[in-house]
Design a protein that fits this description.
Blueprint: H1 2-33, E1 39-45, H2 47-50, H3 53-61, E2 65-71, H4 89-96, E3 101-105, H5 122-134, E4 141-145, H6 159-177, E5 181-182, H7 184-188, H8 203-217
Parallel strand pairs: 1-2, 1-3, 3-4, 4-5
């Protein structure tokens, strides 16, 4: 009799444990399904973006954000170049990512005549790129980044052309489309030692760029700067 009682108690205990486990799994699934999805941030750019600032940005923003790096080495705004960004697979992938926030940093390669053959249509080409993101179904918030200075004198990259032609055209575009800019150019001006080859940032440079992007796309409390529309948080 005692053996039967013990057997029944054991079966009851296992039954209760199984029921508790099923209940916990159900509650966990419910919680996961009802969590707001991370805010998606697409980092569009050239090798400066490829080099790593999005990784630092992810660390700064935390798990509430999903950062994707869509940089392309050698990419340009200009369609008349060796590597127009809009002709690259990453451009299509960035659109398919359906981002809530788009951070675009292009222009350095547009200041290299060996890469860009003619920059006469820079503003209209940039506008076409931006409007591709604006035409997505959501309420994408777009920031245009003014590229870091070019510190190298031993390459075809031309900082004078960047500062006197490319950056003013970026300002023109931003004003036309009423979009905010992030002036990484001014921020990095006194940090030539952060750019080993004069063009590409090291880890300190990437972190500095990420800090400025972070400050631009968030409010002082760390919440998203576009928090006024809640629909972006949910599928």
């Amino acid at each position: 009799m005692d053996r039967d009682v013990r057997r029944k108690k054991t079966a009851l205990a296992f039954g209760l444990i199984a029921l508790l486990a099923v209940s916990c799994i159900a509650m966990l699934n419910f919680a996961i399904c009802n969590l707001p999805r991370p805010i998606r941030v697409a980092c569009v750019g050239d090798s400066i973006t490829v080099g790593g600032y999005p990784l630092y940005l992810q660390d700064m923003l935390g798990f509430g954000y999903q950062i994707k790096n869509f940089g392309v080495c050698g990419a340009t705004v200009s369609q008349n170049s060796t590597i127009p960004y809009m002709n690259q697979p990453e451009f299509k992938k960035a659109l398919e990512f359906d981002p809530d926030i788009v951070v675009v940093m292009l222009g350095t390669n547009d200041a290299n005549p060996e890469i860009t053959y003619c920059g006469e249509n820079f503003v209209s080409d940039y506008e076409q790129l931006i409007q591709s993101f604006q035409s997505l179904k959501g309420q994408e918030q777009i920031w245009i980044v003014k590229s870091p200075p070019i510190f190298s004198d031993n390459s075809a990259y031309n900082n004078t052309y960047l500062s006197q032609t490319v950056l003013p055209q970026i300002d023109t575009l931003a004003n036309q489309l009423n979009l905010p800019t992030i002036d990484v150019n001014s921020v990095c001006a006194n940090y030539s030692d952060y750019f080993g080859d004069g063009v590409h940032p090291n880890s300190d440079g990437a972190s500095l760029i990420a800090e400025n992007v972070y400050e631009a796309i968030t409010l002082p409390d760390g919440s998203p700067a576009y928090m006024y529309y809640e629909s972006a948080y949910y599928d």
